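Hi support team,

I'm opening this ticket because the web form for multi-chain structure prediction keeps timing out on my end. I have pasted the exact lines I submitted so you can reproduce it. The total is 714 residues across two entries, so I didn't expect it to be a heavy job. Is there a limit I'm missing, or should I split the entries? Thanks in advance, R.K.
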Amino acid sequence: MKAESSSVNGALDEAFSQLARYATGSSRGGLVPIDEAVGHALDDAPLRATLEQRLLSQLSGAPSVEAGYYICDKLRFIGSSAAVPVLARLLTDPALGDIARRTLEVLPAVEVSGALRRALPKLDGSSRIGVIHALGRQADPENVPVLARLSKDTDVAVAAAAAGALGTLGSLRAAEAFRRLLDQPRPELRLAIGQAALDCAAGLLKTGHPSDAKAIYRTLTESGWPEVVVRAARQGLESVSS
Amino acid sequence: MPRRTFLRRGAGAAGLVFAPLILPATVWGAEGPAPSGRVNVGLIGKGLMGSGHLRRLLGDPAFRVLAVCDADQVRLTDGKNQVEQHYADDTASGTYRGCAAHVDYRELIARPDIDAVVIVTPDHWHALQAVDAAKAGKDVYCEKPISMTVEEGRRVVEYTQRHQRVFQTGSQYRSITTIRQVCEFIRAGGLGRVKSVFTLFNSLASWIGGERFKPYARIVNADICGKSYVPLDFALPPEPVPEGLDWEMWVGPAPWRPYNSLYHINPAPGVVPWSFCDAFGVTSLTWHLAHSADVIQWALGMETSGPVEILHPADGQFPTLTCRYADGTLLHLVDHWGMVKDLYHAVPETARLAGNFGGLFVGERGWITTMTTGGPIEGGPEGLFEDLRLPSREVNVGANNHHANWLECIRTRRQPSNHEEIGHRSASLGHLANIACWTGRSLKWDPVAETFTDPPAANRLLRRAMRAPWRI
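Hello R.K., no limit was hit. The queue was backed up. Here is the completed structure from your submission:
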């Protein structure tokens, strides 16, 4: 048993040493012991912590793009609060920023939200949009004022993404933000805001707030909203009433 | 890949995608097809499978193909020409120039003259395009698997229903007359209580051990990685992007990978070249399991539900990955049909067992197959077939009404035979199997809440984030 365990550890050490050199054209087979260990670590807290530390240590050390992507994918399985600062530092990295944000977005750690908000001012273009979307995936009430402010941004893409993220949040506080957004929306954002408000109403229904959902649906059935939004809102109203 | 190479890519073609398309509200119009009853369709994806769909659509006067979309200009032009050539034959002048060509699907779904779309893109696009099409008020036919994760599939269901769209999952095997009859027979209790079902679930071995991968043998390590049942990412070298291919758009919401022809080209009759790669596909689920799961869960009456346990062979209960349904029925996933006889001893040695896209059912009264592509339906004892009264045991792939059912439902606004919830649950079965393989352990699943109850930590594998700026 001892010999078997030491051979597993030996294979894992060798795999981590291959990961340190992993780059275009590298053999994938050498990483399989890490794949297996990460899978097994899902409900083994001590193993999870050890593996996470080893992965984070390599991620902090300027890995190749391929190694960075591989590590982030493994952190998707086992990453914890400990991974947040390392991933957050990468958000501004042109090569690894997107995969770092994707990993953070699904990480079950309360620290993610704050890290994303702090990164926002440093980002632009697609990276900024990605972080705005990610904020919508964190059930954190502090994201609402940030997203509400961004939903009024002069950059249409930013404003649309922020409205979308508010919709994804689907909370009572997000609904409050929509009450203001739905009042005289910018014409170029009507569709994005209308669809986002439908998302918010659906979220409210899921969390047991039918009257708040109904209020949104009612507003969206008024004239001026795109036909697809009006139809969905009518359908929503019917389902709440039935 | 050196970071400098990565940055060069980012500064180039990426710009096209980074500005999200905000569609004018006025383009999103009225409900359903034109009063003529003809359905105006847009085809999204004109690869090998897309070509098959295009032929089917062009051959049916009830459809009119108004636009084609593909990230590959060569395939796009070919599709547009094919459509225009076909319709030109119906005009007095012998010419027709009415098919639009789009590289970006968002332009196609923004067209008010299109009623419905057929989505035949790589797997990583399916859910996003289906949701966007539903939000644009289009009815949808979507190739399987309809999702890359359980969460994506649930979104497809929610948006389809929110916008009251008609959604058909592209698992046409259930619509083959013979298969339908056998499934209905099993569902109605013709086999008595079904005890076990068998279907194929394959590792990467034959895929990455194939001829196409020979130049990359050192990278893919077929002897080691071939044992994996889940897709893997390989550090494949970047190759020059073929002229006319918008690779940035092809990759879309998936994690970035530099172009390599292994993802994009699989010479005929090969399909789904991307399926081995974790960024773009889901191995067996892409290859055949989405079809098999569809047929099996339908016959079991579980088509809008799923298993309650996924039992990993490492736990020793069964020699291969096995799904247990709430009523105790076991679905064994096997590498090849020989295992049913040699490992499980479930049917007589004389059973031929061949084909794919279905399963072998063993019940109190006997056993029967629902596979296509492997010859006639098999079963025993012979008395079963007297009750079943099949006009023929042959399985004729062409004799299916899958598109016709979609068309009829677009007109009647009823749910098609393989609607969104069914497509989602079929895909989910494959996702659950893959998660069990990733974690190397058995899992307990609540098919109503769609969450793992044991271990709860596995729930984090039910979703993935998309590459910016894409999102559902």
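A quick check on our side: Chain A is about 70% helix and 0% strand. Let us know if the file doesn't open in your viewer.
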